[in-house]
Specification:
By secondary structure, this protein is α+β, with helices and mostly antiparallel strands. Helices cover 19% and strands 35% of the residues. Bound molecules: ligand LP2KCY5N and cobalt (II) ion (CO). Cobalt (II) ion is lined by residues 29, 31, 82, 107, 109, 157.
């Protein structure tokens, strides 16, 4: 399948490139992978001054077995930081943490305003690999992941608004 030109040669400012996903919305969350979600959330509250943490510190991270992770959200107005801790033997973040034992930024999630399936068809037609079928994500909405090797080294999650 033909790859989008921006995937096979460097982006040149001003050059004519086909448009991206036209109905892409705002950033939904930036996800951080860590071995200890509660400790990471405490850092955002105690050191950086975050006030809206869900679930609040003192409660456990929310287990999402379908995704192989547990989550705590640091809510920052319209956007969120999603703190991810591995859950289960086959967690998709296990390998990332093996390579980055101190943790790090794992993915960005962008809202799709409109049909997720249309967005999927569009990125697939550009040669981007979609990682599995859409699933219900942490906010009860459909989400899907795009391969980081096809997205400039960034793991991208799309969330249907
Ligand atoms: C909480 C629910 C939901 C939500 O609603 O918000 C979530 O966010 S769930 C979050 C966790 N789920 C996922 O990440 C699902 C999608 N991920 C995957 O399918 C895999 O993790 C992966 C992206 C295909 C990576 O596979 P993996 O087996 O873990 O690692 P590899 O070593 O095979 O990776 C291949 C290649 O890609 C590079 N890589 C891996 N992860 C990332 C990343 N997060 N960001 C950038 N690059 C990444 C990795 O370094 C390898 O590159 P090379 O070493 O050059 O081969
Ligand atoms: Co996410």
């Amino acid at each position: 399948m033909a790859r989008h030109p921006s995937l096979v040669r460097p982006f040149v400012a001003g050059a004519s490139v086909p448009p991206g996903i036209s109905h892409l919305g705002s950033i939904n969350h930036i996800a951080i992978a860590t071995k200890n979600a509660v400790a990471a959330a405490a850092f955002y509250r105690d050191v950086l001054g975050a006030t809206d943490i869900s679930p609040p510190l003192g409660k456990s991270a929310v287990a999402l077995p379908d995704h192989g992770v547990s989550t705590i959200f640091v809510n920052l107005g319209e956007t969120k930081i999603e703190i991810l801790e591995p859950l289960g033997a086959k967690s998709p973040i296990a390998q990332f943490l093996a390579k980055n034992p101190a943790g790090g930024i794992h993915h960005i999630c962008i809202n799709v305003e409109g049909e997720l399936d249309a967005a999927i068809r569009r990125v697939v037609s550009s040669g981007v690999r979609v990682l599995g079928e859409p699933k219900i994500g942490a906010h009860g909405k459909r989400v899907v992941f795009l391969h980081p090797k096809d997205c400039g080294g960034v793991l991208i999650e799309l969330e249907e608004c």
